[in-house]
Every structure is written in C-alpha cells, then in structure tokens.
Amino acid sequence: MGVAAALAVLGALLGGAALTLAVEHAFVRIDQEAGPARHTELRHNLQLPNADRWLLPAGPVVALAGVALAMVVLPLGPGLIGRDLGIGLFYVIVVVDFVVLGLALAGWGANTPEGVEACYRIVAQLVAYVVPLGLAYVGVIMMARSLSTVVVVDAQRGLWFVVLQPLGFLLYVVTGLMQSYRAPFLEPFAASLGGGVLGVVGGWSALVWRVALAGVLLVVAAVGAVLYLGGSSGPWLPGWAWMLAKTYGLMALMLGLGRLVRPLSTAETLALSWKILIPLGLVNVLLVGGLILLGVGPGA
Amino acid sequence: MERMPAQSPVLGDFGFVALVLLMAMGLALLAVAAFARAPTRTVRAPPAWAQFRFGYAVYALIFLAFDMEMIFMYPWAVVFADIGMSAFLDMLVFIALLSAGIAYAWGMGGLRWE
Amino acid sequence: MMAAFDILAFGACSFVAVAGALGMATTMSMFRSGIFLMASFIGVAGLFILLSADLIGLLQVMMYIGGFLVMILFMVLVMHDPGGAMMAGMELSPLERWFSKGLVPRDEATSAGQDDPASGEGRSHAGNRHEGHAMPHGEGRHGHARDHGGGAMPHGAHGGHAEHRHADHQHGDGGHGGMDMSMVTPVRPLAAWLAAAAGVVLVGMLFLRPAWPVTDAVPDPDSARRVGNLLMDKYMVAFEGAGFLILIGIFGAVLLARPSTHPDDPSRAAKAAVDAKPEAIRDDRLAPLAEAGGAPEPEHHGSHHGHEDHVG
Predict the structure, then answer these.
(1) Mean pLDDT of the C119-128 span
(2) How far apart are CA A156 and CA A226, in angstroms?
(3) Per mean pLDDT, which range of A113-127, B37-51, B71-85 is the poorest?
(4) Where does the sequence pass through the membrane (chain C) (predicted)?
(5) Nearest-5° angle of CA A79, CA B27, CA C102?
(6) Distance from the CA of C74 to the CA of which of A34, A95, B79, B81 falls in 20 to 30 A?
C-alpha cells in the first residue's frame, strides 16, 4: 500500500511537470520549448572529458530526488496526500534545497568555465532566497499553529491567508521565483554563460533536468496555493480541482509578474533580498504576531 | 510481542519518504538507461577549477547567521499563538538583535558585490 | 520485523555517516570534501529521525546544505586547488585513490596518450614538474590568504590538505613515480594510531558502562511544538543568547571583510567575479515588457537566432 502511494506521488510529479511545461509554453515563442532547460540537447549524450565523474551525474539525480520528495507532502485534495508529515512545511523547504544543491553539483562537476561560474551564481541565489522564503512561511505557520500542510489548509476554511497577510503573499511570490530560478532571476542560466549548467547537459540529464526544473516550479506554486490560497478548499468543485486551479493560477501569476520586470543580475538579486525582502519579512512576522494577539485569524 | 513499545508515527512517515527517494533514484536510472545508446558529442573546454573571488562573501556569512536565526523561528512560530504576549516580546528582542546586525552590515558598506 | 527494519535503517544511516566522514578526510577535491561532509551529516540526521526527533534531524539537513555550500565557496576563495585536479595526478594511498575516483588529473603538458581519464590514474610526468614549481607559491598563498581572507570560516577541517610536504620536489629519476605531494607527513602514522586508540576507548566505554535505563515511552511525535515550548520557557536565555552570538558573528564578518590596509600583491590576484549586466529575455512573447536597459534589442520575430553554440 505504501508502494502504491509512492508510485502515485511520482505519477503526480510527472503529470504535474508536464502540465507545468504546458503552462510555461504560453509564455514562450510558439516554436520554442518551454522551461529553462529548453536549449539542452535531448538527443545527444554529452561527454565532458574533464568532468568530475561522481559529481556531474549526481547533480540531476539529486535535483529530481528533491522535487519528488517535496511532492510527498503536497495535499492534492482532502485525503490525497503522500504522507502528512508532522513537520511538512519545514520538510518542503529543506527538500527543495536539494534542487539547488543538484544544480551546484552539476555546475561544478562540469568543470567548464561557464559551468563553474554558473555554480557560483546558483549558490548566490540560494543565499538570496532562503531567509525571505522562510519568513514568508513563518507568517502562515504562526496563524495555522502547525507545520503540517493538512492543518494549514484546514485553518483557511474561513478565510484565505492571502487576505490576512498580503505582504507575506507578495514576499512568497518573489522568493518563489528565486527558488525556481525563473524570470527575473535568470542569471545562472544566462546566455552569456552559454546557458550555465544547462549549456553542457545532454541526453538523459537533459530529460531529468526538464522534469526537475518544471517540478520545482510546480512545487513552489503548489506550496504557495497551500500556504496562502487555501489549498484544496472551496465550494462546488472537488478538492483536487480547486488545488489544480489554484496551483496553476498562481504559477501563471508568478510567471507573468516575473516577466514584467527586467532580468536582475546576481548582485542586484542579493541586494534586493537582503536590503528589501528580509526587512519586509521581519516586519511581516511582527505584523502577523500583532494580528494574532488581537485575535484575528483562525481561532485556537 | 506485547512488550514492544508503540511505533512512533515519525518512523513510518520517514520510511515512506525513504521509499519515495529510492523510487526517484530508480526513475533517474531509467532515464540513464533510455539514453544508453544515443549518439555522443564531446565538449571541449578548458578545466576551470581554480581559486576564485566570488564577490558575495559578506552576504554568504550573513546568510549563515540568518540561517541559524530561521532555525529558531520555525518552532517559535508553531507555539506562538498558544503562548501569546511573552513569546511575542521574546521574538521582538530576537528580531531587534538581528535587524541591528543587518543595519550594521548595510551601514558599514558590507552589503555589496565585491 | 519492526526490529529488523530499525536495525537496517540504523545500519544504513550509520554507514552513510561514517563513510561520508572518511570520504571527507581522504578525497583530493575540496569540493567533494564538502559534499561528503554534507552526506555524513545527512546520515546523522537519519539517526535523529530514528529517534523520532524529526525537527532536529531536518534542521541538521537544512543548516548543513546551506552552510556547507557556503563553506565550499570559501574554500574556493582561499585554496589553491579546489577541484582536486592537480592532486589527483599525484601519488595517493588506495583509500585516497578510491575517494578521488572520477577526478581527471590536469595534464596540460605532454602526456597525450598516457592518462586514462576513466580511472583518474594518469600520472602526468612532465606536468608534475610544473606543479612542483606551483606548490611553493601555493603554500605562500595559503598563509597569506588565511589572514586576509574573505571571512572567518574555520579551515580546520582542511588543514590537513594544506600541509603538503615539499620534501621530494623533483624526483630525480626521470619523473616516474610522481611526487609525493599527498598528505604524507611524518606524524601521520602516529595520528592514525592515536585516532584508532581513541575509537577503541570510546567503544569500550559504551560496552562497559552500567546499563542505561531503557524506557517504553514513545517520544512525542509533535516535536516542533515540544521544541517551541522548551525554547520559550526553559531555554529562553539560550535563545536570546544565541541571537546575541549571531549578532556578534555578523559584526565579525563585516569587520573581517573590509579591505585590508596592506595591498594585495597583484600577482596573487585570483580571478574575480564581475557584476555583469543580465541579458534580456529573448524567447518570450511578452518580451517587449522585459528588456534589460542598454542591452541590445532582441529580435523576437523572424529569424531564429540559431541559438549559439553554447559550449566551449
């Protein structure tokens, strides 16, 4: 029975990734494929003679593992969850970090100047997104009083958290884009680096990277729907339909908003994160704390 | 069998997680196998592992400090609503300390790309 | 049956923890060293989870992924051969050889047909002499760089790597047998025996201690709540004290990173990252809204750019 559930989780990942690529396709020229991995060579295996033979293949595998593990705690509907971990939300943050780790491994492992430079930019983006993202989560956790995704969805039966914590939602949208390496935070995959990590990827790793990168956007959007948009709750339609609608709606919103701003360089991303997002995040925590003390939000 | 202590649900949960992990690695292996006979192109590039000044050293150190801070915020957030004002004040002090850190770094010109 | 699962899980996590630590200490690549340490701590996190301390276990993983990636970056900032390519071509003990497998030794010179990338075994004979010259500079750099350096990261774990013995620089016998540049110091056998003795003492203490009380109580599965409550009442001082320590750490980081009063020797300058202007998004239907100021206007209709050869 556990095996069936695990297979279902992986199936949800693959299906969701395919749908994500379809949604991203709406934002790209008709003749192009979608997603950051679109320029990778799917038909050829690439051989890099100087590569680190352990780290380079480990990259995409670690990233895929991270995304698959994150799918375990996503509540796709009432009762439709891989496993309701008591510390679900914290677990999601930890596990999506593996995607960044995988990107860094692949970048360094490639041992090309572009790949190694991309590795540094990828870690820079990690340094930029982790703390503000955590602060966006913390506001929701405070109101829901739990780290479990199911409890968070349940706590929004009355009112979605986006209404109570608009600042947190904004923070989440921006840092979610950083976490999934989409516009405007695209420097690690810039054309000036020859596509960075993805410029030297081919064959099986091209396939795995497509799934992993689409998967991370899916996970970010789905967790956003759970945290701020009430997850699978809603009238008339079954829970999973709401979850689907909210996830892809949020994803389209994030992608669209991301393209309204010009791409940011790595230095600008770091400055944005540390000078603007983190102070805002700390203010958000204090605001939410104040709201809770005043009795606003789901009752105990 | 009566003497066995009850199994904590955490073990079962993480057993499932381990199962999903193994299956994801299996999926990756499938992908590798699918491309086993694809044509191969060699990429020639100069080796690039060398000493490098990556420009965001101060950001990285401050990130480490704030990572430690986030560790405290997660459990605090879970119990905050149950405890109320005293927890709020404690976190206020904590956040004030950290904001002082950021303000200092910003004021001393540390938050810039080198 | 449950007991078998427990034992299996415990064995797997412990194996990962120990093997990761072993790999960290013996591999030639700095980057791999950091990754092995990360893996070792993931094994430790598994042990925490087996004790039902899931929050603490995941905290370990979260801290150490971020922390070690940053630590690796600082190693790259300061160390001479972060990827292990130069060291991989030198003489290594079998354990080091195993954990350095897959690193292709750097051989710019003449060994055209001699190296076997698949096993990392190639000894670049002419290349070694070049590296022999490079090494003394490397030593000097380590010393200086640690003073100037970009931060206060402890290099302790990698002190061993840096302690090359230059004893046999230029092996007179035509370059065969390579250079003994790996971690052979005169005290190595002593250190190994000391470590083994310490291990024996610790394990002996485990076996000979009076029995620890075994309880049937199951740890509280809601560990986040328990930790939070403890933080707020019993460990309040530690909580605020930790915040204060973190603040001091930030002060230290900013102070240490200020440009020093001694100018760097220009010949020692490492390649530095440039704050480049980012590229415009080219493939978008929404591209008119998202141009980088000053970047060349992307043509998004008509000609397919022939997306450049990305590599090399």
Answers:
(1) 36
(2) 9
(3) B37-51
(4) 33-51, 58-80, 190-208, 235-257
(5) 135
(6) A95
- The predicted structure's pLDDT at residue A175: 93
Domain boundaries, chain A: 39-289
Provide the whole-model pTM. 0.80
Question: Using omega within 30 degrees of 0 as the cis cutoff, is the peptide bond preceding C288 cis?
Answer: no
Please, are residues B40 and A45 in contact by the beta-carbon 8 Å criterion?
yes
Nearest to C24 by CA among C16, C33, C35: C33
Q: Give the SS3 label for residue B41.
A: strand
Separation CA A249–CA A222 (nearest Å):
10
In sequence order, which ranges of C79-187 are alpha helices (DSSP H)?
A: 94-99, 125-148, 159-162
In three-state secondary structure terms, C155 is coil
pLDDT, position C274: 67
In 3D space, the residue among A209, A189, A193 whose CA is nearest the CA of residue A201 turns out to be: A209
A186 touches chain C (CB under 8 A): yes
Taking only residues 34 to 93 of chain B, the set having a beta carbon closer than 8 angstroms to any beta carbon of chain A reads: 34-35, 38-49, 52, 54-56, 59-60, 62-63, 66-67, 69-70, 73-74, 77-82, 84-85, 88, 91-92
Q: How far is A57 from chain C (nearest CA, A)?
A: 11
Whether B65 contacts C254, CB under 8 Å: no
Confidence of residue C136 (pLDDT cuts 50, 70, 90): very low
Q: What is the ipTM of this complex?
A: 0.86
Q: What angle do CA A124, A130, A132 make, to 5 degrees?
A: 115
CB contact under 8 A, B55 and C106: no
Kindly state whether A48 is in contact with chain B, defined as any CB-CB distance less than 8 angstroms: yes
Over residues C34-90, the pLDDT tens digits come to 999 999 999 999 999 988 888 989 999 999 999 999 999 888 888 777 776 666 666
Look at residue C297 in the predicted model and tell me its pLDDT: 37
C296 pLDDT band (50/70/90 cuts)?
Answer: very low
**Are residues B79 and C82, on separate chains, in Cβ contact within 8 Å?**
no
- In 3D space, the residue among C60, C50, C66 whose CA is nearest the CA of residue C11 turns out to be C50
- C-alpha torsion B90→B96→B97→B99, nearest 10: 140
List, in sequence order, the alpha helices (H) in chain A.
2-25, 55-71, 88-110, 113-144, 149-155, 161-164, 166-179, 204-228, 239-260, 266-271, 278-293
Q: Cα–Cα distance between A23 and A255 in angstroms, integer?
A: 9
Give the range among B23-32, C63-72, C208-217, C262-271 with minimum mean pLDDT. Answer: C262-271
- Yes or no: say if C85 and A118 are a contact pair by the CB < 8 Å rule: no
Chain C residues near residue A86 by CB distance under 8 angstroms: 54, 221-224
Average confidence (pLDDT) over C285-291: 48
Q: What pLDDT, on the 0 to 100 scale, is given for residue B7?
A: 65
